[in-house]
Design goal:
Elements: E1 11-13, E2 18-24, H1 39-46, H2 51-60, E3 68-74, E4 82-87, E5 95-96, H3 114-128, H4 135-146, H5 156-166, H6 170-173, E6 179-180, E7 183-184, E8 187-193, E9 198-207, E10 210-222
Antiparallel strand pairs: 1-2, 2-3, 3-4, 4-5, 6-7, 8-9, 9-10
Helix pairs in contact: 3-4
Pfam families: TANGO2
Protein name: Transport and golgi organization 2 homolog
Organism: Anas platyrhynchos platyrhynchos
Length: 232
């Protein structure tokens, strides 16, 4: 429930079509003097660098931060979308992500934690039916996926990475949605972008650290991506 060390955000999208999302990499011991990670998202949203170039720049200073994963994307309805990934506990270079379904938790991209694989399975089942769902219903079904509290155990990979830090809460931590006293999921975000660049951004936030109180906000806007297609 801690506030960000130096501000910033975990996830954001701009009207210019730049989107970024950040997760921490679970590690038993962290460096309290490391640079704050929240600005990694906001700096991309306000920069003129494309997603790969930005992550390449971040990778040079990756060692200055505690563990993190960063997704950066450029959405463009005419040129096509570009999505890239960098994790400072993984490969030294960012990678381009091909079209597909990916899962990211508090380890490297697509690390086969059981809860991650289960979450991808639930997500894929919703997406298969998405053409038959109204936008509002699709958002609600995705929120339901993110609030699944069924522990996926045993998971030696989580235990090996988290060691003594994670064992006391392993039964709760091994679910898609984590609910522990003083620790857990406090925000769900669903971002839908259609082929015409219409964005629906829905966020569900915990109120006053009370798991019985949530508030949901939805924002809709059009991407203002540059295009050479000018019509009179």
């Amino acid at each position: 429930m801690e506030e960000g060390k130096e501000g910033g955000t975990w996830l954001g999208i701009s009207k210019k079509g730049k989107m970024a999302a950040l997760t921490n990499y679970m590690q038993p011991k962290t460096d309290k003097n490391a640079k704050g990670r929240g600005a990694l998202v906001t700096n991309f949203l306000t920069s003129d660098l494309d997603s790969y170039s930005y992550l390449k720049k971040v990778s040079v200073e990756g060692h200055l931060y505690n563990g993190f994963n960063l997704i950066a994307a450029d959405f463009n309805t005419t040129k096509g979308d570009v999505i890239c990934y960098y994790g400072n506990k993984g490969e030294p270079e960012p990678i381009f992500l091909n079209p597909g379904t990916y899962g990211l938790s508090n380890s490297l991209l697509d690390t086969p934690w059981k809860k991650l694989q289960y979450g991808k399975q639930l997500f894929t089942e919703v997406i298969k039916r998405s053409q038959d769902l109204a936008r509002e219903d699709l958002v609600q079904e995705l929120l339901t996926v993110m609030n699944n509290q069924e522990p996926q155990l045993p998971d030696p990979a989580i235990e090996d990475q988290g060691k003594e830090y994670i064992r006391p809460i392993l039964n709760k931590y091994a679910a898609v949605c984590v609910r522990c006293p003083g620790y857990g999921t406090r925000t769900n975000t669903v971002v839908l972008i259609d082929s015409e660049g219409h964005v629906t951004f829905t966020e569900r936030n915990l109120v006053n650290a009370d798991v019985s109180q949530w508030e949901t906000s939805t924002y809709e806007f059009e991407l203002h991506t540059a295009t050479s297609d000018h019509r009179d």
